[in-house]
From TrEMBL:
Location of the region described as Disordered in the Swiss-Prot/TrEMBL record: 330-374
Record SMART domains: RING (SM00184)
All residue ranges annotated as the RING-type domain in the record: 386-429
Segments of skewed composition (Acidic residues): 330-340
SUPFAM superfamilies with a match to the protein in the record: RING/U-box (SSF57850)
The protein, known as: RING-type domain-containing protein
Annotated Low complexity bias: 349-374
Listed transmembrane segments: 228-253
Superkingdom of source: Eukaryota
Organism of derivation: Aspergillus glaucus CBS 516.65
Amino acid sequence: MDTAADSLTTAATLFAGPGTTNTTPSTNSSLDFRLVLNGNVQTLSTHNAPENDPIQGLLFVPSLNPHDPCNDIAAPFIPPNVTRKEDVSPFGDHSIALAPWISVECTHSFLKASRRDEPDALIFFLPTQDEKEKPPSLDDPTWVLGDSDEWKNRNEYPVYAIPKPDAATLMQRLSWYSGDATSTSPHGSDSSVVAPHRHHNENVRLFTFIDLGKSYPPPKNGKKMPSLWGFILAILGTILVLSMLLLVCYQIVQKRRRRRLRRRIEAGDADLESLGLNQMKVPQEIVDQLPKYTFPDVNAPPEALLPNNMHSHHTKFFTDGHGSITTIEEEPEDRDEIDADHESHVQRPQPATTTTTTANTTTTTINQPISTTPSVDRLSYSQTTCAICLDDYEPGLSIVREMPCGHIFDAHCIDTFLTQNSSLCPLCKKSVLPSGTHPIPVTNVMVQRDYMQRRTN
């Protein structure tokens, strides 16, 4: 957890002297001293720093051993009558020490003295720093004491640093507010002469507050206030959940639209060319199911009108291209049907008995309509030219294949076209695929194209 110091505030505080019942600290406007450092506090050690509360206590200067040579070295930076530990002990258990960072040996001496006084925190300042700027960062060589930072673990309190000009101001105030208003400072100076506006039975001390960047005072219910990251994560989580719900709804709607479009395609109500399905190929097994027969002579009279065959059976032989021979025996037709076929010049296959003979088996089907057997006299449209190769049909010789829409083409041309180019009739653009057959899945792009086409129409 981050326990770096965010700001430091020091203010002069009045304490009741002996013989009074009020021991609550208070500020006095006549003292008019308040020092606030925002962003100029450098954190040197966070060892044993509190996690939830700021650091607060009365400010003092640690006392070195009388024989320590650092007393003379630190004398230019520490007035002789500053507030010491014994000056703040009667007014509370919480205290904060202030000392100069002079050299490695003197710094160790102040750290050792602070361990005896047990402050809540220790504040250093660099005597060589004249600018009122934030002290150097923690990785600066200035803070190296030659023990691999072991001093941070050896001292049971956090350590901070402030600029020298602010520390000098605090040292001056500490020299004013040591002892009480009626006595002489134990360090040899009458503080009542130096510090005006002090009243009888009043003691003034510097109270320091180090803010660690957390909310203070804490909530009354004992719970922490949610951080900014908590709000950000909550918002991101809400957006993520809503996005997933919208995605699921979108997928459900698109699935229903795909099913609806598939039904329209199977029913033949959709324009396959506008949907981008004009290049869909037809499997060979479906092509083989389309009727294939010899182009008849359109000018020849129907065979059924010949006198010799009017009341006799018709027997026709065909080959399906695989070595099988099919024999069709047609029943006699009445006169009305013959006249109707003569007017249209098209002879439609009638229910008949079909016998298919192969090398090994013979199959007979009775009264079944012929749908895929080529017929010499079957023609749905009076087409005399193949629309693909532009060659004229030769009666009795050209083998044609008929589309479900009724158009006929040269068998070789249309077979190649359907299996390699498109599943649509080259003339009317109707699908050749049987109803209910759609090998390519319907996509969202196709649904969008169909929607835009119906909207424009």
